[in-house]
């Protein structure tokens, strides 16, 4: 079966002051199948959100190819993208600013139906009620305004809007980051149910490693706009191959005092995406880098012959990619 | 001596509505906890539980309409809430330091960071400009800031989030305080930076024997960096105790629900988590404030719940907990 989304060598550069260029995304390739959740992790400035926006064509890619349900949408004009968005939806981090404060909740949920379907007012109203119940909002909220709802309720409204047109792909950009723990749990449970019910493909962008681990089937680790590792979720956490993934995973604090931490401290600051260093972008901070890393840009390769697990590091082939253990109190 | 002992702290927001009726939001309803030197206490809870308000109440930084209406905050035996303003001023920034949220907006944007460090030092200690400058450079170096002498001349806007947070911690530590209160010290920072900042804080507490209180909503931070924890709900501490013990045996239904909602414990497709907005502080129910959301609530929950001691300093405030 064809994947819902197929991205090849995607690049996105932004112009910066003085004729310089911000290299936000530098050649990433991945695919998402129906019913699959791809987790995208990385620190600020790693290009997570840019990738999310580019794949649903809120941004125009600089280079590469994006195929949605087999169709090349890389250079589709905006007018042709609009009808396509019935099938590809996005949920943003901040539900307070994602919803028009002057529109009632019921109309907000019905809005995608108004834009993308030929349906009567009463049909849309029925459907909005159904969607509200599906995301576990009481239907009396439909006549309220966004300011009267809590953050968790607003994020449910955003999810109801996203699923209204039965899309094949939903890009979720930090959908739970601004929510409290118990509210966040409810949203994650809802997303898991929706995926099981509808088989929608999801791209889940987050810096919260615990959440990504829980909800994702596969994970893509980004550093400075490049993919450093791409593997099944459990594998990335248990056996991260790329030194950056190792450092990132070691900084994750599971909410369990009995979990043993293996700490790898990274020295130095992340290089500027305006003046990217040659070779491996992580080499300047990498504890296991050798001079060759500064010269040759590593490609994504299968780790130990396992095509499911890919990482971009020269030192994996020599078996020298593990950061040595340091004592941690 | 106990470094900080807070007893039955009550803070209300008292205002008048459009009909000129007095409205009272009971934001803190009897907060009590203690912090020993050399220990790290994690104060956790969700939005609106009163975590930050607890810190600002203790530090005497409340602005109207918020007002402390009852309770004591004993710092080394002296009640901060009953002290004349001048004495509190002398303690604040010297013996008690606060690291606030959002480092970028907490630094003076028009002063070089070195001058900010020197200023806070000389405001409280008799030191020459030169001695203060040397101390500031040392402090930046000890917080892992590369090339500290040159960084002294940096402006706040030139710093990354992690650097700004380190400078803020340096400011808090310039006068060698005995109590450090850090309000969400790592929220908004990347995980690798978060780990570095927390390592620094913990090493500092272990090395110098000061007491620290970390206010956070992140149970991962509590699990790995705190010795004791106190869980807040609707302006009261519902459960407190040694971190490992509370995680292993969460006894208040709210704590159990909160820990159960962490990604580590959450089972997608399992029983649903109880979530929801915090109760209305203008109309807090009598008795247990959690009873509307509590799956175990009964008729007796309409009366104030007792603090039940569970051994080794583990306490839960609930009718359903058996000692």
Automatic annotation (TrEMBL), chain A:
**GO: which molecular function terms?**
ATP binding
Looking up Pfam families in the UniProt record yields:
ABC_tran (PF00005), oligo_HPY (PF08352)
Q: Which CDD domains match?
A: ABC_NikE_OppD_transporters
> Where found in the cell?
Cell inner membrane
Residue ranges spanning the membrane: these are none
Q: Which UniProt keywords apply?
A: ATP-binding, Nucleotide-binding, Transport
Please list the residue ranges annotated as the ABC transporter domain. 5-249
Spell out the InterPro entries in the cross-references: AAA+_ATPase (IPR003593), ABC_transp_ATP-bind (IPR050319), ABC_transporter-like_ATP-bd (IPR003439), ABC_transporter-like_CS (IPR017871), Oligopep_ABC_C (IPR013563), P-loop_NTPase (IPR027417)
Family statement drawn from the similarity comment of this UniProt entry: Belongs to the ABC transporter superfamily.
* Name under which the protein is recorded: ATP-binding cassette domain-containing protein
Which organism is the protein's source? Falsiroseomonas frigidaquae
The root-end lineage is:
Bacteria, Pseudomonadati, Pseudomonadota, Alphaproteobacteria, Acetobacterales
Automatic annotation (TrEMBL), chain B:
For this protein, the record's CDD domains field holds: ABC_NikE_OppD_transporters
Q: How does it sit in the membrane?
A: Peripheral membrane protein
* An example Gene Ontology molecular-function term: ATP binding
Organism superkingdom: Bacteria
InterPro entries in alphabetical order: AAA+_ATPase, ABC_Ni/Peptide_Import, ABC_transporter-like_ATP-bd, ABC_transporter-like_CS, Oligopep_ABC_C, P-loop_NTPase
State where it is primarily located. membrane
Entry keywords, A to Z:
ATP-binding, Cell membrane, Membrane, Nucleotide-binding, Transport
Q: Where is the ABC transporter domain?
A: 4-259
Is-annotated flag, keyword Oxidoreductase?
no
Statement: the UniProt record of this protein carries the keyword Protein biosynthesis? no
According to its UniProt record, where is this protein located? Cell inner membrane
Q: Family, per the entry?
A: Belongs to the ABC transporter superfamily.
Mind telling me which NCBIfam families this protein's record contains?
oligo_HPY
Q: Report the protein name in the record.
A: ABC transporter ATP-binding protein
Organism name: Falsiroseomonas frigidaquae
